[in-house]
From TrEMBL:
Leader sequence segment: 1-19
Keyword annotations of the record: Coiled coil, Plasmid, Signal
Source organism, top-level taxon: Bacteria
UniProt family annotation: Belongs to the membrane fusion protein (MFP) (TC 8.A.1) family.
Residue ranges of coiled coil: 101-128
GO CC annotation, single: efflux pump complex
Domain YknX-like C-terminal permuted SH3-like: 283-347
GO molecular function: efflux transmembrane transporter activity
Stated name of the protein: Efflux transporter, RND family, MFP subunit
Natural source organism: Neorhizobium galegae bv. officinalis bv. officinalis str. HAMBI 1141
Keyword Coiled coil carried by entry: yes
């Protein structure tokens, strides 16, 4: 081939290549993803301590019989009943108690009559004392008889009071406001003193006995807010009322007693998880959708001024709802792809929608 022909061919190929570059660039830009970009948000989040433990009664009261050999004639409440202090729960047969009460009333009347007689004799003895009408021995006898009669009256009054108390105990009353959790009382059963009839949760108060790592113990104090996750992912908030002063030598964990609201009425006996909120600290956060997990490592995609997406490794921390705290890898001014990062590759071209950016920034400022 002649030199002139070769130079002409090279010139034509260079011009064709130059003309193709804008077309290829447009094709690359046309193939780019459209993404929503926003800056990480600055939040004030409480630091939390994970915990788990049993739901138990705040205080459990045992209601028992206080009299011997009386038959149950009526059971007035059942498991699940909400009762008030002083409310009748069980009635016992009281016929024999009433009979004994009448007997004691009669004994008291007799003792008072004996006292009246002894007092009259003692008064006469005191009037003639020293006159020689009665011997000193007889006078002392009348005075001692008066004292004995007075003691007899006091004894009869005490026995009568005891019978009245026994009669009152024939009706078993609630010792406090609360919720009946178990029932042993059976109609027709003859109970003895100390026989358990019911158990109740005082004031319907349930608490979470949360086990926490001992390293958090110095930072947990009375009054902190705690949250449990109950059945059906139902969240219930409570308050730390007491922190145990000891640590288990078996588990290296301590107990925090969390009072739960009575209105929540979580079931007793469940083992639940939750968290205790410590002090509130600053957090740099992004939506959970911004994270891309690859090989167990968390990444986000950032966008530079040339609309190029770069994959950045980040370290995550706390989570709150749909937001995740970023501990390292980002700063406040970085533009982060909020969704769709899983479809991007490092250094790929993206198109940022202005409307989406403005909308996300407005949501961030709430």
């Amino acid at each position: 081939m002649r030199p002139t022909t070769l130079l002409l061919a090279l010139f034509v190929s260079v011009n064709l290549a130059s003309a193709a570059e804008p077309v290829l660039g447009q094709q690359n830009k046309a193939a780019a993803l459209t993404v929503a970009v926003a800056h990480p948000a600055e939040r004030r989040w409480p630091e939390t301590v994970p915990a788990s433990g049993w739901l138990k009664p705040w205080h459990e009261a045992v209601i028992a019989a206080e009299t011997d050999s009386l038959r149950v004639t009526a059971v007035l409440v059942d498991v699940g009943s909400v009762v008030s202090k002083g409310q009748p729960l069980v009635r016992l047969a009281d016929e024999t108690v009433r009979a004994e009460l009448r007997s004691q009333e009669a004994a008291l009347a007799s003792a008072r009559a004996d006292l009246a007689k002894a007092t009259a004799n003692a008064d006469r003895a005191r009037k003639v004392q020293g006159s020689g009408v009665l011997s000193d021995e007889k006078i002392n006898e009348y005075l001692i008889a008066e004292q004995t009669a007075m003691a007899g009256v006091e004894s009869a009054e005490a026995l009568l009071e005891s019978q009245k108390i026994k009669l009152a105990k024939a009706t078993i009353l609630a010792v406090d406001d609360g919720l009946i959790t178990s029932r042993s009382a059976q109609l027709g059963a003859v109970v003895s003193s100390g026989t358990e009839l019911f158990r109740m949760i005082r004031q319907q108060r349930v608490e979470w006995q949360a086990e926490v790592s001992a390293r958090y113990l110095p930072r947990i104090r009375q009054g902190l807010t705690a949250t449990i996750v109950g059945p059906g992912d139902r969240r219930v908030k409570g308050t730390v009322r007491l922190v145990a002063p000891t640590v288990s030598t078996d588990t290296g964990r301590a107990l925090a007693y969390v009072a739960l609201p009575a209105a929540a009425r979580p079931p007793i006996g469940l083992y639940v998880t939750g968290q205790i909120e410590l002090e509130t600290t600053a957090a740099l956060t992004v939506p959970e959708t911004a994270l891309v997990l690859r090989d167990g490592i968390a990444y986000v995609f950032t966008v530079d001024a040339d609309n190029r997406a770069s994959r950045v490794r980040v370290e995550t921390g706390r989570r709150n709802g749909s937001e995740v705290e970023i501990l390292s890898g980002l700063n406040r001014s970085t533009g982060v792809v909020m969704t769709g990062g899983a479809f991007l590759s490092d250094k790929s071209f993206v198109r940022v929608t202005g409307d989406a950016l403005v909308q996300l920034e407005k949501g961030e400022s709430r």
